[in-house]
Amino acid sequence: MANGSQETNSRSRGNEFERRAERYLLEQGLRLLERNYQCKLGEIDLVMSQGPTLVFVEVRYRKNSLFGGAAASVTPAKQQRLRRAAHSYMQSKGLNESQQSCRFDLVACEGSHVHWIPNAF
């Protein structure tokens, strides 16, 4: 039972930090298009826009910066899954990758600090 409770707490904490990141990015002038886009290839925490640019946002939380911190937790394999999910999102919206500018941002939350890294990968 404890494992299920731990998983629920982790998911709840993840949602809390996604909302915090969303609020922060809205304050920076980005516009929310979608939360938690899911497809068989992966999930994108936030899909936003900044002017004409489509912004795919990964939100990561770590209690502290031990073991590289939140930013270091986005491995090359995770980046590839995000790219595939972004491609799926664009196809589902009828967007052409050669005509639509897009980027991948990271919002790294460590403790109470929020660090936004535009064009992270």
What is shown here, in short?
Belongs to the UPF0102 family. The protein has 121 residues and is α+β, with helices and mostly antiparallel strands.
Can you tell me the overall shape? Answer: globular
Protein structure class = alpha+beta
Oligomer: single chain
CATH class value? Alpha Beta
Strand-residue fraction?
25-35%
Main-sheet strand order equals 1-2-3-4-5
Average pLDDT reading: 86
CATH architecture: 3-Layer(aba) Sandwich
N-C termini distance = 38 Å
Number of helices: 3
Query: Could you tell me the radius of gyration in angstroms?
Result: 15 Å
Organism: Oceanisphaera sediminis
Protein name: UPF0102 protein GCM10022421_24840
InterPro entries: Restrct_endonuc-II-like, tRNA_endonuc-like_dom_sf, UPF0102_YraN-like
Family: Belongs to the UPF0102 family.
What does this structure look like?
With 121 residues, the protein is α+β, with helices and mostly antiparallel strands. It is 39% helix and 35% strand. It contains three helices and five strands; from the N terminus they run αβββααββ. A hairpin with a 2-residue loop joins strand 2 (42-50) and strand 3 (53-62). The longest helix is centred in the first third of the chain and has 26 residues, at 2-27. It starts with a helix and ends with a strand. The model has no long low-confidence stretch (mean pLDDT 86). This is UPF0102 protein GCM10022421_24840. InterPro entries: Restrct_endonuc-II-like (IPR011335), tRNA_endonuc-like_dom_sf (IPR011856), UPF0102_YraN-like (IPR003509).
